Amino acid sequence: MKRDTQLRNDIQGLRAIAVISVIIYHFNKNWLPGGFIGVDIFFVISGFLITGIILRRQELGTFSILEFYVKRALRIFPAYAALLVIVTFFMAALLIPNDWHGYSESALAALRFNSNNFFASQNDYFAPAAYELPLLHTWSLAVEMQFYLILPFVLVFASRRFVAPILICVAIVALLYSEYNLQSGHRQSVYFSLSARIPEFILGGLVAFCWRSRSFNRSTSNTMSLFGAGLIVVSMWLITEEDKFPGILAIPACVGVVLLLTSEKSQISEFMSSAPLVFIGALSYSLYLWHWPILAAIRYITGEYNIEGGAAVVFVLLTTCLAYISYRFIETPLRLQSSWKNTAFRLSVLGAIVALAVALTEIINVRLVPPMPVNLTRYAAIDEICHKKSVGNCVRGDAMAGRILLMLGDSHGAQLNKFADVVGENLGVGIRIITSSGCVTIPGFDVERIVEWARKDCENQIAEAGKYIGTADAVIIAGMWQMHAKSDKFMTSFDTFLSVTAEKKQKVLVLAQIPMLETNPQRAYRLNHLGIVIRGAKNPESDIANSKIKKIVSQHSNAVFFDFSKESFFADAPTYNGSLIYQDTHHLNETGSIRYGEFATPFLQEFLDRVYARQKAMNAGGLIQSYN
To answer: What GO molecular function terms would the record report (predicted)?
Structure first.
């Protein structure tokens, strides 16, 4: 058993390869599409090493569950806590208040080693993109700690002859359960779940449990290691984030790790035992900890995924230096602690310090930069509008009017509640708005395409909208077309909806997507106060998507397409006449929604005149044609 648990240089080298692949993937996923599999390599290695440690201690009669937990915490928590404190103080200064709120929740979840479940259930539509979330990578540490809570009890309380059968059964059940959920469309929850990774830990554990004194000759080891390395390389090259992973797709890479672990006499093992790889492997934990928050901060500041030039140099230098400092002055001294009993109290104090830091830094976030007025940071009070849920009768504008229009859409429809108040009151109509995140609330919308957390709300809001489509005087549709126009299924359902309304001689007004910005104006405001000047531009993708939607609309005589994106209202976006009108890169704020309504009212007047004149067919003349 000694060989299974002693420090092996080739395993350090394998760790190096794992962390390098993860960093490459996180830096630019196009360079190594399946580089995220490096995390799965870590899980198999952890299962192998930790199971071996427990079994060896049991054989010596010195195993203690409490000692095991304290030593695991001592190995993981100090460097982790240092990261949380430092990153939290930095993010308190950097993040806008809405983003800070999400970050502080994630920090507390990370402190409890529950960030995997936190991110799996994340449903904040306005949160930063995933690649800007500073603590997203902590999900894997949470999964690892959760596994550590379970493993000792299985090995201690199960009879030795039943351990392997139990582990195999658990692994098979967990694998099948995960694969079923993946095929059922629950990719996000599966990816972050402990159950999906248990087979990987167990596979490593079974190697430690079953592979005792067995040794393979050099020729056999070379063959095994070459095949194992091939499985890993092919997996990293062919598997992408679009695939249903982990599940069955994780098996080849994990088997590849097993083959490398059991062929330590091979030439590949000798390569992995080389000094540079061993050194990187020793730093792998700290490298993993630090690389992601640095990448997230750079992307948050620049607003871009790609990191080039000076920013890339900053990333490499900061990651290397901070990882080495963490390894040299935190990991190494504490790993050499001889008394684990005195450490438990210190770890508790350290956890309290991290929690206190998160609480205290709230003051920094609020006071360092003067807060923006609330009407500039939202498009409406979310509990007062029918977005993702129904609130009252959902009618805006002149609610007492006998003329009622129906507005459907995603958050680009929801942002028009104040718009509808202005238009409705000016023109004497009520506008019932029923929207949902990422979901254009028309019949036949391809719900399975949107993020998992938004699907139920989408289905409910589509059903709610269905109650009013047939009786509405006219329908208005607004959406983030650059997200939907890429879906053939959506374009088909959209075309079908327009055809059905045409048969009923019901008028439909489709609003173009407003221009999308490259830079979040709230971030620009905060960063400018911090002395970081960033300049924004418009993203051309919205124009391309608008043209695709316009083409569909033009094929239906009952429908018109209003495109104000090129008009004076958006000429100086994110401002209009000196007022900030955007809350983020693609949503108006309350002020913007009101101003947009004032700007659009004259053009909507002609549309309503046509609706209530009940013309049999709508031509594309006059003002309406000028905005087609």
So the answer is: acyltransferase activity, transferring groups other than amino-acyl groups
**What helix, strand, coil percent values describe the chain, rounded to 5?**
65, 5, 30
385 token code pair: 């509008």
- Residue 138 has a pLDDT of 97
Which tens digit of pLDDT belongs to each residue from 249-289? 999 999 999 999 999 889 999 999 999 999 999 999 999 99
Both tokens assigned to 351: 């956890």
Both tokens assigned to 64: 């203690």
- 178 within 8 A of 196, measured Cβ to Cβ: yes
Token digits for 507?
């008028």
Please report, for residues 446, 494, 512, 577, the alpha-carbon distance to residue 485 in angstroms, rounded to integers and kept in the order given: 12, 10, 12, 31
Name all contacts of 157-161 with Cβ < 8 Å and 24+ positions apart. Answer: none
Query: What is the dihedral angle through the alpha carbons of 147, 288, 86, 107, rounded to the nearest 10 degrees?
Result: -40
Please give the Cα distance from 283 to 357 (Å, whole number). Answer: 26
**Positive or negative: CA dihedral 374, 379, 380, 383:** negative
559, 510 Cβ separation under 8 angstroms: yes
Model pLDDT, residue 615: 42
> Any bridge partners for residue 538, and if so which?
517
State how far the Cα of 70 lies from the Cα of 88, in Å rounded to an integer: 25
Omega before residue 515 within 30° of 0, cis: no
What gap in Å lies between CA 156 and CA 153, rounded to an integer? Answer: 5
Q: How many CA atoms lie within 13 A of 503 on its CB side?
A: 6
pLDDT for the residue 620: 41
Can you spell out the DSSP letters for 67-133?
HHHHHHHHHHHHHHHHHHHHHHHHHHHHS-HHHHHHHHHHHHHHHTT-HHHHHHT---TTSPPGGG-
Is the separation of the CB atoms in 30 and 306 below 8 Å? no
Rounded to whole angstroms, the Cα distance separating 306 from 567 reads 31
pTM reported for the whole predicted model: 0.85
Low-confidence ranges of the chain (pLDDT < 70): 1-6, 123-128, 212-214, 335-347, 614-628
Rounded to an integer, what distance in angstroms lies between the CA atom of residue 137 and that of residue 194? 14
DSSP 242: T
pLDDT tens-place string over residues 168-200: 999 999 999 999 999 988 888 899 999 999 999
Dmax (CA) for the chain in angstroms is: 91
Burial-class residue 518 by CB neighbours within 10 Å (0-12, 13-18, 19+): middle
Question: Which residue bears the tokens 């050194």?
Answer: 279
CB 216 within 8 A of CB 263: yes
Which one-letter DSSP state was computed for residue 382?
G
Measuring CA to CA, which residue among 147, 137, 142, 141 is closest to residue 195? 147
What torsion, rounded to 10 degrees, do the Cα atoms 471, 474, 476, 477 define?
60
Helix (H) or strand (E) holding 270: helix 267-272
Query: What is residue 138's DSSP assignment?
Result: G
